[in-house]
Specification:
- This protein has helices spanning about 5, 45-50, 55-70, 95-110, 125-130, 155-160, 210-225, 230-235, 245-255, 260-285, 295-305, 320-335, 375-390; strands spanning about 30, 35-40, 80, 85-90, 115-120, 135-140, 145-150, 185, 190, 195-205, 290, 290-295, 310, 315-320, 340-350, 350-355, 365-370.
- The chain is α+β, with helices and mostly antiparallel strands.
- A hairpin with a 5-residue loop joins strand 6 (about 135-140) and strand 7 (about 145-150).
- Helix 3 (about 55-70) packs antiparallel against helix 4, helix 7 (about 210-225) runs antiparallel to helix 12 (about 320-335) and helix 9 (about 245-255) crosses helix 10.
């Protein structure tokens, strides 16, 4: 193991204000020896129309969790895009990652009847193609961080995957059970408090890429002027989280996390119900029960939710009033007409949350997306604008 290269992301100096994502000094180039993990759900549009968007969310999260679990001591940057996931891994994890991806593909097909396409793309191949891949680290809180990416390499890697490029290393088939320890899906959908949930994507137009840092800074400043309080615009709040006891909701985690036998699924489901019951009692009583501090966990959950992210595209899930929505669209449309940006918006009444729980005390991250298609539907509008821009 090349300890220096494997510690690349661990040694990236992070920043604490989301607005700092447009400062190039917070980014460093990804090592050429690393690989990009990229994913895609085939026929995702049909799956969304059939009401499977939560299944699609979980499929992307399963990729992230399986690779993080095999990495153990190696810190890895990753991004959750709603209908897919992206990660960077060192060469030392290449073979193990391919096995993990193969296991997740098989499990996702068995659990949700979805065809998950995955692959590894050498960063060197992306650099040889003229791509840029810069990596930063945004501190969500004192206990959790989120990777941010600038450039075009992740977009190109995804395109290569979809086009079945010979630059993509595909995993072989596997019947192994993936290690998804810590992947949880136990919350009811997050209802809006202000009128609607907005899934927003913003990308600097190709003609303005040389001014990308400046345009992202200006755009983010304009959005934050419309939504000045993140605690108000974030879908996750300590008072709005409700654990689910619905078999339909909880069975999604059961299908992914348990072995295929009926007995294994039943036992896993019962354990989930008991865990949720303990959690609910701790939340309501505001007391620690069996070592679980519900009040602290909810506070950390809100802080560690990724409702704002940047992975070559600015992504945000916002709890919005109609007036804020109208002002947002006017602001973005003005910038689009000027040629500076492209964007996509999807409206829904709820947000979805999928959790990566390494520890119930501090070390947990919560992946947020809009319901009914969220980022995936917003991406359709963005792609239409990108096509129209030539």
């Amino acid at each position: 193991m090349d300890a220096v290269r494997d510690d690349f992301y661990k040694n990236v100096k992070g920043f604490g204000q989301f607005s700092q994502l447009s400062d190039p000094s917070h980014y460093v180039a990804a090592p050429a020896s690393w690989f990009v993990v990229t994913t895609d759900v085939i026929n995702s549009t049909i799956a969304i129309e059939n009401g499977q968007y939560k299944d699609i969310n979980l499929s992307g999260a399963a990729v992230i969790m399986s690779v993080l679990n095999l990495a153990r001591e190696v810190s890895l940057p990753y991004a959750f895009g709603g209908d897919g996931a992206t990660m960077l891994i060192p060469a030392s994890l290449r073979d193990d990652a391919l096995q993990a991806l193969a296991a997740v593909q098989t499990k996702v097909e068995l659990a949700f009847n979805l065809e998950l396409r995955t692959g590894l793309v050498p960063v060197q191949a992306l650099y040889d193609a003229g791509c840029t891949l810069l990596v930063g680290k945004f501190h969500l809180s004192s206990t959790a961080s989120q990777a941010v990416f600038q450039g075009n390499a992740l977009t190109v890697a995804e395109q290569w995957l979809k086009k079945n490029s010979d630059k993509v290393i595909h995993p072989q088939t596997s019947t192994d059970e993936p290690d998804l320890e810590g992947l949880e899906c136990r919350w009811q959908p997050l209802h809006n408090r202000h009128g609607k949930i907005i899934s927003l994507l913003v990308k600097v137009a190709p003609a303005y890429e040389k001014q990308a840092w400046k345009i992202y800074a200006e755009t983010l400043k304009a959005i934050e002027a419309i939504y000045p309080e993140h605690t108000q615009s974030s879908p996750a709040t300590t008072g709005g989280m409700q654990l689910s006891f619905s078999p339909a909701t909880l069975m999604k985690e059961v299908q992914l996390r348990s072995h295929n036998s009926l007995l294994a699924k039943m036992l896993y489901f019962v354990r989930m119900l008991l865990t949720n019951l303990i959690g609910q009692c701790s939340f309501l009583s505001r007391r620690k029960l069996l070592g679980f501090n519900g009040t602290q966990y909810l506070q950390e959950l809100v802080a560690n939710s990724d409702s704002r992210k940047f992975d070559e595209i600015l992504r945000m899930v916002l709890d919005s009033t109609q007036a804020q929505h109208d002002e947002l669209v006017h602001t973005l449309e003005t910038k689009r007409v000027s040629g500076q940006i492209l964007y996509g918006i999807h409206e829904s009444s709820q947000a979805l949350m999928t959790c990566l729980v390494f520890s119930t005390s501090g070390d947990h991250v919560h992946l947020v997306d809009g319901a009914d298609g969220g980022y995936a539907i917003a991406a359709k509008q963005l792609k239409q604008q990108l096509k129209a821009a030539g």
